[in-house]
């Protein structure tokens, strides 16, 4: 069973996820950043659901294992939609929203098929392995897409402070997760370290998004050029 | 091979995102002027230097913390340490890096001074509320 440390991180993370949605509602930005709030709401519901399944069936039960991995895959897809929502916001003035949505759907389907192909070739064709493989691949695809989005933010001279904060914090989050998965594959013997890191990493995103909602108004502007050289 | 490539790409991206994120935090404060009393306390009038950062952070710790700025101070503190590391390691190989890191360290110090100003205002509000009750 999880110890006090795991439970503390779990509770903090769940409250922070709820906090993001509350901050968005308080700032009247829920609809504007719907996909981000959808992800945070899904995270919150999943956390509560996981606790309920854990309390009823135990950590080593098949029910918890399946619930954990399937909900993780759904959350990764929701996070992917959050990223696409940010793409839509950045590209909205160019009128490229439809293309972005179509491209994101193709990429999501492509990643799911690629993950299926990897598992299909291996001897162990368990469904949970497919879910884990797909999550890992989506994290790396997410990292690459966030990097491309950051490039677009700089190129298009996006100035909205909130959008910049959302994109950068998502980039930090995806890169930490992708690095963690890669380290887990390179050093599988240190599994206890790679097991503790994801809960800590998962607290960063709600903290950064809460901060962005509270600290910046929708009208707040940052010059991206200042991120390179900050004149005073 | 593949995990190693993913690790290298992820760490490179992490570094760039982290630096940009910290700069975006700092950029939000550069236009805010410091009040004369904070200028007196910190010794920063216009341009701050990297040497001011630790002193201003010590002053920050004397003020009641605002829940909103704990995370950003930690992030900028980590960024300041990263800049120090760059100065002491890469700075010896690439001397042109030194002026850039010094400017960035100065921005970190200015950010800390603006945060100090906010904390002082926060403490005054708290004090005023206590006096009223």
Describe this structure in words.
The complex is a heterodimer of chains A (232) and B (133). By secondary structure, chain A is an all-alpha fold. Chain A has a single domain (4-218), classed as Up-down Bundle (Rhopdopsin 7-helix transmembrane proteins). Chain A is built from eight helices and no strands. In chain A, helix 3 runs antiparallel to helix 4, helix 3 packs antiparallel against helix 6 (161-186) and helix 4 packs antiparallel against helix 5 (127-155). Chain A is globular, with a radius of gyration of 18 Å. The termini of chain A are far apart. Chain B has one domain. Chain B is built from six helices and no strands. Chain B has helices at 2-27, 36-42, 52-62, 70-88, 90-93, 97-132. In chain B, helix 1 crosses helix 4 (70-88), helix 3 (52-62) runs parallel beside helix 6 and helix 4 runs antiparallel to helix 6. The longest helix of chain B has 36 residues, at 97-132. Chain B is globular.
Supply database-style keywords.
heterodimer; A: 232 residues; mainly alpha; Rhopdopsin 7-helix transmembrane proteins; 0% strand; globular; disordered C terminus; B: 133 residues
Summed up:
The complex is a heterodimer of chains A (232) and B (133). Chain A has 8 helices and no strands. Chain A is mainly alpha-helical and 232 residues long.
Query: What is the average per-residue confidence, as pLDDT of chain B, rounded to a whole number?
Result: 87
| Order of SSEs of chain A | HHHHHHHH
CATH class of chain A: Mainly Alpha
| pLDDT < 50 runs, ≥5 residues of chain A | 228-232
- The end-to-end span of chain A amounts to 53 Å
- The ordered H/E elements of chain B are HHHHHH
Classify the secondary structure makeup of chain B into a structural class: mainly alpha
Shape of chain A: globular
Largest interface: A-B, 37 and 27 residues
Instruction: Specify the biggest β-sheet of chain A.
Output: none
Helix content of chain B: over 70%
The geometry of chain B reads as: globular
């Amino acid at each position: 069973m999880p110890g006090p440390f795991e439970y503390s991180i779990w509770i903090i993370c769940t409250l922070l996820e709820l906090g993001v949605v509350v901050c968005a509602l308080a700032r009247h930005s829920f609809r504007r950043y719907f996909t981000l709030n959808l992800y945070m709401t899904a995270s919150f519901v999943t956390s509560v659901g996981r606790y309920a399944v854990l309390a009823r069936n135990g950590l080593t039960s098949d029910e918890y294992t399946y619930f954990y991995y399937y909900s993780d895959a759904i959350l990764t897809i929701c996070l992917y939609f959050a990223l696409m929502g940010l793409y839509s916001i950045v590209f909205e003035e160019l009128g490229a929203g439809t293309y972005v949505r179509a491209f994101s759907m193709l990429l999501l389907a492509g990643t799911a098929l690629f993950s299926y192909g990897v598992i299909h070739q291996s001897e162990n064709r368990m469904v949970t392995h497919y879910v884990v493989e797909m999550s890992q691949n989506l994290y790396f695809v997410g990292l690459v897409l966030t990097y491309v989005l950051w490039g677009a933010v700089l190129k298009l001279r996006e100035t909205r402070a909130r959008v910049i904060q959302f994109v950068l914090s998502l980039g930090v989050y995806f890169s930490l997760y992708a690095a963690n998965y890669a380290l887990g594959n390179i050093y599988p013997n240190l599994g206890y370290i790679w097991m503790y890191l994801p809960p800590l990493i998962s607290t960063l995103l709600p903290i950064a998004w809460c901060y962005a909602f509270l600290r910046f108004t929708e009208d707040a502007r940052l010059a991206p050029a200042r991120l390179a050289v900050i004149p005073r | 091979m593949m995990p190693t490539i993913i690790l290298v790409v992820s760490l490179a991206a992490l570094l760039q995102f982290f630096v940009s994120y910290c700069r975006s935090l700092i950029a939000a404060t550069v236009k805010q002027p410091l009040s004369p009393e904070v200028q007196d306390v910190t010794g920063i009038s216009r341009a701050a230097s990297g040497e001011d950062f630790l002193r201003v952070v010590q002053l920050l710790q004397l003020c009641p913390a605002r829940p909103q700025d704990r995370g950003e101070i930690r992030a900028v503190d980590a960024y300041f340490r990263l800049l120090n590391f760059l100065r002491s390691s890469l700075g010896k190989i690439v001397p042109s890096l030194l002026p850039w890191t010094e400017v960035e360290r100065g921005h970190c110090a200015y950010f800390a001074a603006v945060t100090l100003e906010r904390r002082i205002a926060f403490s005054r509000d708290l004090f005023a509320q206590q006096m009223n009750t």
